[in-house]
Specification:
With 394 residues, the protein is of the alpha/beta class. Helices cover 45% and strands 16% of the residues. A hairpin with a 2-residue loop joins strand 5 and strand 6. This is Erythromycin esterase family protein.
Length: 394
């Protein structure tokens, strides 16, 4: 390994990571290359503690259900209930079983117990309610939005009409609709009417924001806005599930990340006067370049939530991509990016992508992982990241 490549890397600490970022960052997107590896979550926790204690960060947003995140945030803020309940109700995708997520929530609660209310840490989920078994139905968020507005405004639709259009829950959550568009309720006339209603209610929420905020509270209005975004997004997603064209999966991925970007944008606006936010998700949801994967031998491409947010924030958005060297028998070839980084002297390193690319000269070969759940970094686009977090072995 040349000295210049060694010079592009430092031992991973919170300080060595933030040294690579511009001072005006409002959202730091920290990626992981695969789910279910505690080592990346442990690194995330370590970095978040540094960001809170030394860089003024006051919130964290995870790739987890935005509605479930309300329960996790309530616990972190000192709310009633046991930690086990918060882990069960506050995370989606099985992430509540993670020991590192449990440690994160416990640390946040302890920090908040010794901090004034205006300085408390907030927890957000920024994913849509889209479990692997399929999307949630819109009833809880649409009715909650209606209830909030109807307490203060005359609405163009009654709760009874809304309930009739929503119908029973089972068709909304039919897992067969994931692979069979004909099983989706999204193409029915009721969904088309519900999309118009959700749009109208969201517009009323915005138009009457001064009155509603004064009559309730800024936090209550923010939560209602979350319901409005989620209701509109879920109805749009269900309509997309009914699309029988070959572009269906790509459009669904695009819709999901657009919802994620909308949630992150709302977090940025809410946290504007308090401090920056750490967003943690898969690299594919945070990278600036176009995301892609193969599903059932079909190539899918979409713009990630991070790429969308970066168009709004510019240099105030930063992305740190994470990857690893060896995992059991899955050892990167020497000529790949991960193979080259594996020769670094650090077990955990943070790498300056610009200096790394300059030192490499020619682009390394792409890694072909043994495990299909791991998506390797694209050597052709690593320069678009602000940092690379590398773990030599997991």
């Amino acid at each position: 390994m040349t000295t210049s490549i060694r010079d592009a890397a430092r031992e991973l600490t919170g300080g060595s990571l933030t040294a690579l970022l511009s001072p005006g960052v409002r959202v730091l997107g920290l990626g992981e290359p695969t789910h279910g590896v505690e080592a990346f979550l442990e690194v995330r926790n370590e970095i978040f503690r540094h960001l809170v204690e030394h860089e003024g960060y006051r919130s964290i947003a995870l790739e987890s259900d935005c509605l479930a995140g309300l329960a996790a945030d309530a616990y972190a803020g000192g709310g009633a209930g046991a930690l086990d309940e918060a882990m069960s109700r506050g995370f989606s995708h099985g992430f509540g079983a993670s020991a590192a997520n449990r440690e994160l929530l416990s640390w946040m609660r302890a920090y908040n117990e010794r901090s004034p209310s205006h300085d408390r840490l907030r927890f957000y989920g920024f994913d849509a309610p889209l479990e692997p078994a399929g999307p949630a139905g819109p009833r809880p968020v649409l009715t909650a939005l209606h209830d909030y507005l109807s307490a203060h405004l005359d609405l163009p639709v009654t709760r009874e009409t809304l309930d009739g259009l929503l119908g029973p829950e089972e068709p909304w959550t039919d897992p067969a609709a994931l692979t069979d568009p004909a099983r989706s309720v999204g193409g029915g006339p009721e969904v088309k009417e519900l999309r118009l209603i959700a749009d109208d209610l969201g517009a009323l929420l915005t138009a009457h924001a001064p009155h509603l905020t004064a009559a309730t509270s800024p936090d209550d209005w923010w939560r209602a806005d979350l319901y409005a975004r989620t209701a509109a997004g879920l109805l749009r997603y269900h309509a997309g599930m009914a699309d029988p064209s070959s572009a269906r999966l790509g459009r669904l991925m695009s819709q999901r990340d657009a919802m994620m970007a909308g949630n992150l944008d709302a977090v940025v606006r809410r946290e504007a006067r308090r401090g920056p936010t750490l967003a943690f998700a898969h690299n594919r949801h945070l990278q600036r370049d176009k995301s892609h994967l193969w599903f059932a031998n079909v190539p899918i491409q979409w713009w990630s939530a991070g790429a969308i947010l970066a168009t709004r924030l510019g240099d105030a958005y930063a992305f740190a991509a994470a990857t690893f060297g060896a995992r059991g028998a899955d050892v990167p070839a020497p000529g790949t990016l991960e193979g080259i980084l594996s020769a670094l002297p650090h077990a955990r390193a943070v790498v300056d992508p610009a200096r790394l690319v300059a030192a490499l000269g020619e682009k390394p070969a792409p890694r072909v992982p043994v495990d299909h759940t791991y998506l390797a970094l694209d050597p052709a686009t690593v320069h678009q990241a602000d940092a690379i977090v590398f773990l030599k072995e997991i």
